[in-house]
Amino acid sequence: MTMSEPQAAQEAAKARGAIWRRAFSYILPFIVVAGLWQIASRFFPPYLFPSLVDVFKRVFEILVTWDQLSDVLATIGRILAGLAGAFFIGAALAVVMARSQSANRFLSPILTLFQGIPALSWVVFAIIWFHGVEPRIFFIMVMTTLPSFTFQVLGALQGMSRDLTEMVMSFRPTRAKLFRVMIIPAILPDIMTAWKVNLGNASRVVVVAELVGATGGVGYELLQQQQVFDMAGALAWTLQLVFFVLIAQAVLTFIENIVFRYRAVSERTL
Amino acid sequence: MTAAQPIIRLDQVTKAFGVGRSFTAVDRLDLDVGTGQMLALLGKTGCGKSTIFNMIAGLTEPTSGIVTVDGRNPFRDFDAFRGKIAIVFQNDRLLPWRTAVQNVGLGLEMLDIPPKLRNETAMHWLGKLGLLGHENDYPHALSGGMRQRVSIARAFATDANILLCDEPFSALDEMTGRTLRAEFLKLVKENGKTAVFITHSINEALEIGDRLVVLKRPATIALDVSLQRNCTIENKEAIRGRIQDVLAS
Questions:
Q1: Is the ipTM reported for this complex over the cut 0.95?
Q2: Min distance B245 CA to chain A CA atoms (Å)
Q3: B79 in contact with A at a CB cutoff of 8 Å?
């Protein structure tokens, strides 16, 4: 049975209403926090609670001033380079660990040990071991995100369906084809999750690394703002990273929606 | 019983599992399957049917004895059997990230068949199994029967000489199972395949096989009978009785 035109228009209006309600429910918490902050700015000095207008002026200034924007881009570059490095090393280690029990037994405790070392300790080690800023930060980023990438990819490899693997193996694929048709699609959802989780971690770690061991980047700029008690500047620089993480997460979600369109969608949510 | 021109041969094959190989699944089994034969392998659950199946498929190696398919070891000469053995599993085992046509084309992809020809072949087999119009559906959008049809199409698409079937219709309802079984049997005969069909259903074995092998636990041959094409209902009933006696013992 097909819907009549008024019914269809009613359904479309309902769908639009649902989208607006959902969008509003996402935005509402931010509006509340911003409102409370703005009220506080009327009662406290600017070095404690600066007006949001001042903060967003600084945000805009950073975005349109190349000297400052280049610091943001440097930090983003460091995050992405560190994550990419950790992902490729971690994925390679995970494949080795999945294939060999003895490699797994040998590497697991080492990675667990790494996980227990605080990010700040890696910063100190990096400053002692490396001379250049970039090698230092790359090292810190890799060391702090490597264990989680490795364990997440390893978990994905170990959790692959034995039935499906056996089925694909029955067609006797080459190793490259096995990776392409079976392993990569099977572990991709976990890889995407790993990237989402590590993106947040990396953006926190990179600030610590730049704060102590760099002469540029968002972390370094935050240190400058702290030294002059410029809260508006500190917030503006922090927001640059927050925006980056939000945009990156949105890009990952967009990719997920395309790549995982094969998944069944249940009308009843968890 | 030895078939003429055996294409599959198991010679004193034993497969044991567990610590110290304490559990024997297959015990010194001798079995030949002739070219073009439709062998129904029957036995109780856990009698080692699937282990035999995996050894013929080259997915596992015997603990002792020799398995040869077309004169070669299917486990060690793994790559040599690419496109020569196809399997229909108990459950459909479709890759959820591939559409029906992409699932059917999987084996052809392994054979480096160009995408256009791969697609045409996959569509041909989907058509034969009544799935035209569903080629771009993902597995989650298909019913159990349709999914199993896709998996049968996938097995036939590579034009492998040997078909191994591990209780492919046992998870389906009776009507769907019966229809698919008839279609499957027709396709096997039309295409002159050698097939090993594992089942625990006496009715299915009698319907499908032109030779029936009943296994006891651990897998050794308890009964081996050929079914003539013109086998009468009385003969089939007599065979059914013998199978029931063997399974009951």
A1: no
A2: 34
A3: yes
